[in-house]
């Protein structure tokens, strides 16, 4: 049931013909209240897609009633006509649902630099409104997929309230969000400040720490709608922790479906002077094509890890660095440690641990290996 | 003749057995003076290889008489024993040539994280001293190759003086140098300040603007030896321009031999507010795996370029950006421009032009595409 598991929400996913595959491509999520509290986080890319430019305005007042999403076209770098298409979509949803256009978030995903087929989108939105139902979450999750091989969905149960979420994203998983669209719903009665703080913290610790290929998207949006219809006011910690747990679940689903990946890699940076140092070191490793190809080749190549650590300004001494693959400390104090032969990189899950010996902070960055399939998919598929 | 084209130099390249292939792996270059002026630029990686740690000390006084180089092992992350091996190599060269050890630069390239076979290196150095000759430049160029498919050599003739150079490097071509070793020689009579300034400027504008895979090496060294034996004191501009031209030639040879590349890509960023803005934008594009795989797929995907530009803090307006592939302006003012169909990405040479419309500065970054062969070579070959 995902995003329709919390009370007060209806959703739909329909086929509008924007995708040449003929698969579902328009989704709609509606918050029926009583509350219209909302929060969102967007890509930090300065070259943003039109739906992001629009939706940032919608969220200015921390309120939203509906999210309309399309796959089959990112509506990005499409100029004033593209912005107009986004605006029209919001107006159409608003007219059909008796809302204001500024209560309607718009998200798009697909090819960059081409105009959406406005007629098809219009027909799709009408069909989606007609199809809205209290169990439409899974259909919406399916309609936002692009190169995803499976829908991403999660639900968490709190004390008297529920949080649900759907996500899409398979490539371009990167800093400050991935090419991802995420819709989160809850029937908890939370105020806007609580919703916003909880969403930002959850995003910071989950989606923001995915770095599949270092490429930052133009359309990333994570939006949280709060209906308040459970009548339950959870404590901010309870709500925030549950939201974070759900976002972690969705983030791991995104990681597990990353384009062409053979390995899911957790890079744990421990004993850092600061959390930011740990994040920076983890990200530098996650972005090393040499490290990522080595994991693809099942080679526990710690030298490439040290070379990446050395590009950062984190606090550490080169001759004190330790590195482990799956708990085998192949590098001790910047020199060869345990035998590489003890490391088995056949399983999909890989954990790299880097001990900076500079403090007490830690962070984990998740990434994938760099494979032939990644090259194939991204050289053959235009995004 | 390359590095032995200028008067006052002898060189050699021999086989010491450090490479399992049995190919030449120890090179020696000796400056017979009268001048011993030298300058060098090293990797900015904080996790440096032992030969870099040693050679930085050698260059402290701006003087050097010899460079000994080995392939078949980077002597990197090998601890105190590794440093001792580097030091011993310098002492051995010095003893055989009646120099001080602090006059001997040491460079190593090959696998990281394994001790060099010191016995073989010692035998190789003796053989190299015995083989020194006034036409040994090409043999030295061959002995420093690793995954290079061909030696890189260049010579430039000034007014009464000559500059020669050899280089190696095929992967890890990256910021602030590549995995490259470069030895430059000249018989010009230049003082240390002139040599140093000319080398830094030439490096900044050539080797530093290669960014093949964004990975910074641990062993990079560019060293210039000046014998003064021509007796000619060129003006600093004449010397600097000729040196830069020669370094550009070597850098293009490195680019053309990058591991697994199908395309050589020049990213020209024009009308930037500052040169640094232009460099930052060019580098962001050069590091986008999505852009690089698109070029491999012969897809003039300007959307991925704009998405990379948007990750920088350069001065620009998203809706004023223009992008061309090989002179075809496929993006105008952040929207689709000329038809992508006009772009032919079959030839190896690709020029991407990004017009920031923010000022008068410009810079070019050179990179390669991301191919199946890159993934293969770097997953199968441990460095």
UniProtKB/TrEMBL annotation, chains A, B:
GO terms for molecular function: L-glutamate N-acetyltransferase activity; L-glutamate N-acetyltransferase activity, acting on acetyl-L-ornithine as donor. GO terms for biological process: L-arginine biosynthetic process; ornithine biosynthetic process. It is found in: Cytoplasm. The active site is at 179 (nucleophile). The record marks 178-179 as: Cleavage. Keywords: Acyltransferase, Amino-acid biosynthesis, Arginine biosynthesis, Autocatalytic cleavage, Cytoplasm, Multifunctional enzyme, Transferase. Gene3D superfamilies: ArgJ beta chain, C-terminal domain, L-amino peptidase D-ALA esterase/amidase. Its main location: cytoplasm. Pathway: Amino-acid biosynthesis; L-arginine biosynthesis; N(2)-acetyl-L-ornithine from L-glutamate: step 1/4; Amino-acid biosynthesis; L-arginine biosynthesis; L-ornithine and N-acetyl-L-glutamate from L-glutamate and N(2)-acetyl-L-ornithine (cyclic): step 1/1. Pfam families: ArgJ. Substrate binds at residues 146, 168, 179, 259, 378, 383. InterPro entries: Arg_biosynth_ArgJ (IPR002813), ArgJ-like_dom_sf (IPR016117), ArgJ_beta_C (IPR042195). The record marks 109-110 as: Involved in the stabilization of negative charge on the oxyanion by the formation of the oxyanion hole. Its EC number is 2.3.1.35, 2.3.1.1. One of its GO terms (cellular component) is cytoplasm. SUPFAM superfamilies: DmpA/ArgJ-like. It catalyses: N(2)-acetyl-L-ornithine + L-glutamate = N-acetyl-L-glutamate + L-ornithine; L-glutamate + acetyl-CoA = N-acetyl-L-glutamate + CoA + H(+). Heterotetramer of two alpha and two beta chains. Belongs to the ArgJ family. Catalyzes two activities which are involved in the cyclic version of arginine biosynthesis: the synthesis of N-acetylglutamate from glutamate and acetyl-CoA as the acetyl donor, and of ornithine by transacetylation between N(2)-acetylornithine and glutamate. This is Arginine biosynthesis bifunctional protein ArgJ. It comes from Amycolatopsis albispora. The gene is argJ.
């Amino acid at each position: 049931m995902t995003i329709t598991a919390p009370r007060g929400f209806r959703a739909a996913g329909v086929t509008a013909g924007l995708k040449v595959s003929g698969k579902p491509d328009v989704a709609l999520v509606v918050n029926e209240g009583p509350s219209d509290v909302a929060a969102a986080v967007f890509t930090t890319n300065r070259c943003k897609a039109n739906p992001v430019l629009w939706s940032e305005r919608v969220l200015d007042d921390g309120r939203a009633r509906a999210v309309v999403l399309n796959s089959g076209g990112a509506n990005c770098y499409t100029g004033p006509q593209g912005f107009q298409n986004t605006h029209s979509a919001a107006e159409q949803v608003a007219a059909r649902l008796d809302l204001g256009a500024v209560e309607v978030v718009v998200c798009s995903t697909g090819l960059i630099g081409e105009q959406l087929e406005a007629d098809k989108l219009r027909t799709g939105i009408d069909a989606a409104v007609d199809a809205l139902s209290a169990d439409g979450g899974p259909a919406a999750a399916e309609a936002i997929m692009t190169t995803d091989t499976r829908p991403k969905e999660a639900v968490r149960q709190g004390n008297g309230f529920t949080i649900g979420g759907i996500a899409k994203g398979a490539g371009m998983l990167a800093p400050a969000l991935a090419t991802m669209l995420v819709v989160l719903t809850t029937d908890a009665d939370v105020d806007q400040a609580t919703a916003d703080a909880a969403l930002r913290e959850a995003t910071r610790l989950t989606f923001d720490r995915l770095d599949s290929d270092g490429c930052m998207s133009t359309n990333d949006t994570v939006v949280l709608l709060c209906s308040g219809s459970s009548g339950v006011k959870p404590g901010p910690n309870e709500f925030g922790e549950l939201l974070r747990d759900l976002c972690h679940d969705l983030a791991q689903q995104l990681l597990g479906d990353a384009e062409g990946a053979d390995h899911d890699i957790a890079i744990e940076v421990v004993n850092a002077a600061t959390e930011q140092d740990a994040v920076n070191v983890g990200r530098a490793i996650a972005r090393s094509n040499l490290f990522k190809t080595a994991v693809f080749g099942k080679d526990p190549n710690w030298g490439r890890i040290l070379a990446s650590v050395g590009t950062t300004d984190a606090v550490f001494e080169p001759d004190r660095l330790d590195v482990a693959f799956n708990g085998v400390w192949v590098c001790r104090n910047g020199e060869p440690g345990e035998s590489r032969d003890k490391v088995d990189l056949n399983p999909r899950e890989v954990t790299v641990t880097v001990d900076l010996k500079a403090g007490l902070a830690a962070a984990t960055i998740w990434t994938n290996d760099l494979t032939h399939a990644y090259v194939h998919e991204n050289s053959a598929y235009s995004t």
